[in-house]
């Protein structure tokens, strides 16, 4: 029955049109609703993405501001270091300038000092050293011996050491090994005992001879009398006896023809010692120079380079004494 009614309904054209319109409307409404739902869903998704991006952006912003802070701190630190560097550089420059000034002052003082102390020399370097110098050092070895040896080495000069028995007697090894002559002076250096008799003299001489031989294995026959052969102790012609006796026993004795004067008083100035030697050396062609190697004779050590320099300029060469060396005797 209902079916009949429905058939009747669609027999009318008007009803068909109405029904079609109603159907179209329904379909449109459904389609619209679907579209709106889909759009809403997309919007929701985009909003979620925006919110996530915002969070990320916030993080990045924080990092950026942290890095900016660090850059600022670094820049400040850099500026501080730059100003410290500038300050250090300016201090360095002023110290360098001061050093230069001091060097110039030292140079000026040193030139002045040399002008004041080095005696006038007439012969330039490079000429043949035709003159002969025997430098001799008495009464050592002492605390000054090694300094004397150093200076002699610098000038390639040889010397002779007339030794006595001292606390530093072992230094005769250094004297000997460096090519200098170790010669005999005395064991005790006590005039009263040594010059009390010929026997006493030779007992003393034998003692220093054995001591030297025991240390360097060489028996020396070169001697210097304490006080020289012209010493004032010549009691009852003792010195004449001794001079003859030492010759008979095969010894060669040496005095000097230039006295440095370093033992003529206590603390003789080095300029005086230098002048004594160089003044006396000017008028001679061969010299035997008396000096002393004792602990208190520090001015002799100071004078030595000036003496060597001055004598070298006067044309002297420096050798050690040998038994062939002639002269330099005050007596005999
Ligand atoms: Zn002496």
Tell me what the structure shows.
The protein is of the alpha/beta class. It has two domains: 42-117; 131-318, Alpha-Beta Barrel (TIM Barrel). The chain has helices at residues 2-11, 13-117, 145-154, 172-177, 191-194, 198-216, 238-248, 270-282, 298-313, and strands at 131-140, 159-163, 181-184, 222-223, 252-253, 258-259, 286-292, 316-318. Bound molecules: zinc ion. Residues 138-139, 185, 189, 226 line the site of zinc ion.
Could you name the key traits of this structure?
two-stranded parallel sheet; TIM Barrel; six-stranded parallel sheet; 2 domains; binds zinc ion; 332 residues; rod-shaped; 8 strands; 9 helices; alpha/beta
Shape: rod-shaped
Rg calculated over all Cα atoms: 56 Å
Q: Examine the coordinates and then state which fold CATH places here, giving the name of the CATH topology of the largest domain.
A: TIM Barrel
Please, how many domains?
2
Residue share in β-strands: 5-15%
Largest sheet: 6 strands, parallel
Mean pLDDT: 89
CATH class value of the largest domain: Alpha Beta
Element-by-element helix/strand order? HHEHEHEHHEHEEHEHE
Task: State the end-to-end CA separation.
Answer: 186 Å
Number of contiguous helices: 9
Report the CATH superfamily of the largest domain. Answer: Glycoside hydrolase/deacetylase
């Amino acid at each position: 029955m209902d079916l009949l009614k429905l058939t009747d309904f669609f027999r009318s054209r008007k009803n068909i049109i109405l029904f079609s319109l109603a159907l179209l409307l329904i379909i449109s409404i459904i389609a619209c609703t679907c579209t709106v739902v889909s759009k809403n869903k997309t919007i929701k998704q985009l909003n979620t993405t925006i919110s996530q991006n915002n969070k990320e952006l916030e993080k990045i912003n924080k990092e950026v501001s942290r890095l900016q802070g660090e850059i600022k701190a670094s820049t400040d630190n850099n500026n501080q270091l730059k100003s410290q560097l500038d300050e250090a550089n300016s201090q360095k420059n002023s110290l360098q300038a001061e050093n230069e000034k001091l060097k110039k002052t030292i140079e000026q003082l040193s030139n002045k000092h040399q002008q004041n102390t080095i005696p006038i020399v007439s012969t330039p370097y490079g000429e043949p050293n035709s003159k002969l110098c025997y430098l001799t050092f008495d009464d050592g070895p002492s605390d000054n011996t090694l300094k004397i040896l150093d200076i002699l080495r610098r000038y390639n000069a040889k010397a002779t050491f007339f030794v006595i028995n001292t606390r530093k007697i072992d230094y005769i090894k250094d004297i000997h090994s460096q090519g200098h002559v170790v010669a005999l002076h005395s064991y005790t250096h006590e005039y009263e005992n040594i010059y009390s008799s010929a026997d006493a003299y030779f007992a003393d001489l034998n003692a220093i001879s054995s001591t030297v031989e025991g240390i360097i294995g060489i028996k020396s026959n070169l001697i210097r009398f304490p006080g020289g052969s012209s010493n004032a102790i010549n009691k009852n012609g003792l010195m004449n006896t001794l001079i003859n006796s030492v010759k008979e026993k095969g010894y060669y004795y040496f005095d000097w023809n230039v006295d440095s004067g370093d033992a003529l008083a206590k603390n003789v100035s080095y300029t005086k010692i230098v002048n004594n030697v160089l003044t006396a050396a000017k008028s001679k062609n061969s010299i035997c120079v008396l000096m002393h190697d004792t602990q208190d004779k520090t001015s002799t050590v100071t004078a030595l380079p000036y003496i060597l320099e001055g004598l070298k300029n006067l044309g002297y060469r420096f050798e050690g004494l040998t038994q062939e060396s002639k002269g330099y005797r005050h007596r005999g």
